[in-house]
Specification:
Layout lengths: L3 H9 L8 E3 L6 E4 L7 E11 L10 H19 L5 E8 L4 H18 L2 E9 L3 E11 L1 H7 L19 E5 L4 H13 L11 H12 L5 H7 L5 E4 L4 H12 L1 E6 L7 H6 L2 H10 L6 E5 L4 H11 L3 E9 L7 E7 L2 E5 L6
Parallel strand pairs: 4-5, 9-12
Antiparallel strand pairs: 1-2, 2-3, 3-6, 4-6, 7-10, 7-11, 8-10, 9-11, 12-13
Helix pairs in contact: 2-3, 2-7, 5-6, 5-10, 7-11
The protein binds adenosine-5'-diphosphate and magnesium ion (MG).
The site of magnesium ion has 5 residues, from helix 2.
């Protein structure tokens, strides 16, 4: 069975050579040249779909569906180091439920105002609940920045391609909340008693809050653009997403299990096996995984402090060939060092 990425590569990767495509399929967002005559600005676009029952549990409150749909898309822009400006909204609704729509719209509006984002179009159809956002932003090219002498002249966008052997591997904030929250939600919706939970009501709410509204890392991503050599947001799982950087940068990545910033609530919410799975392969984290030269360690620490983001050094980039590209190793786990390829199925 071909995986998601085989399908995309086989059937949809036919515009890579297009003249105006600066960065096509394969990263967190695409970058396009707007005009040959004016190379000073480029368009950045990313899209993500959320399906009820697949990406969020059926019956999740409308305001949470809104915040999750928006922030998951914002996360791809954080990973590119770009601020989004506009988006379109394609909605499939099973029925017209005005109370649901009012709540969904109020949350979306509130977040748009906070993030300075404009909803500029979309589509509304009848069908199983599904939300697709297409987010857009623009950037100045390196050349334009150099000419104006503003900002970091060598920063344009952050991609998955620039990791170099010897670089540090970093992750933002804490890991494991995506998987743990899903377990809580499934338990909650299956009406298991909360008294059976090892977490207090308050801790329960804290874990769910992250699932409902992944935190905004746009300020951090923006600053990271001049510092990191590559970046991705963790949506498929730490190992899978490290694999994407490894493959696209043609390097290997070593991660030290003992350095991973496992969320303290996550440690309480599951047993060792569950916690390991949530942290390494669950996805839904929406934290940034990035690489940066060792010489930039102090810069990373500084911008992390400025933005109130925790950054943890979790491993290193090693030599790897293009053929063996997709290789990520985890050391320090119970069963010692593992090297696994093809994390899609992990
Ligand atoms: P992310 O996890 O960052 O949202 P995905 O894993 O969904 O990215 O997709 C990987 C890459 O493949 C992205 O660059 C995305 O734009 C592209 N892609 C996904 N589905 C399609 C499709 N049907 N047609 C063209 N490109 C696609
Ligand atoms: Mg992404």
């Amino acid at each position: 069975m071909p995986g998601e990425f085989d399908i995309i590569n086989r059937y949809f990767r036919f515009s890579d050579q297009s003249d105006s495509v600066v960065l096509g399929i394969g990263d967190d967002a695409a970058v396009m040249e707007l005009s040959k005559a004016d190379i000073s600005r480029r368009l950045v676009v990313a899209t993500d779909t959320l399906l009820e029952g697949v990406h969020f549990p059926a019956g999740m409150a409308a305001k949470h569906v809104a915040s999750r749909a928006l922030m998951v898309n914002v996360s791809d822009f954080s990973a590119m180091g770009v601020r989004p400006k506009w988006f379109t909204l394609a909605l499939a609704l099973p029925a017209i439920d005005e109370a649901w729509l009012a709540e969904f719209s109020a949350k979306l509006k509130e977040l748009c105002e906070n993030l300075n984002l404009a909803l500029v179009g979309g589509d509304t159809v009848r069908g199983p609940l599904s939300i697709t956002l297409t987010m857009m932003g623009d950037i100045k090219t390196r050349e334009a920045k150099a000419a104006e002498k503003v900002g970091e002249a060598n920063s344009e966008v952050l991609t998955r391609k620039g990791a170099k052997p010897g670089d540090d591997v970093w992750v933002t904030n804490t890991l494991g909340r995506g998987g743990a929250a899903l377990k809580l939600l499934e338990g909650e919706l299956a009406a298991t008693t909360r008294s059976a939970s090892p977490l207090s009501r308050n801790e329960h709410e804290q874990l769910l809050a992250h699932f409902y509204q992944p935190e905004c890392l746009l300020d951090f991503g923006d600053k990271l653009a001049g510092i990191a050599s590559s970046a991705i947001d963790i949506s498929d799982g730490l190992l899978a997403d490290a694999g994407h950087i490894a493959k696209q940068s043609a390097v290997a990545i070593d991660i030290d299990w003992n350095k991973l910033p496992v969320n303290s609530l996550v440690k309480k919410a599951g047993n060792h096996e569950e916690v390991s799975r949530w942290v390494l392969s669950h996805g839904d984290e929406y934290q940034l995984l990035f690489t940066a030269p060792e010489a930039k360690r102090q810069n990373v620490v500084e911008i992390a402090k400025q933005c109130g983001v925790q950054c943890t050094l979790i491993g290193s980039v090693e030599v790897g060939s293009v053929e063996e590209g997709e290789s990520v190793g985890v050391s320090g786990m119970d069963d010692n060092v593992k090297t696994i390829a093809g994390y899609q199925h992990f």
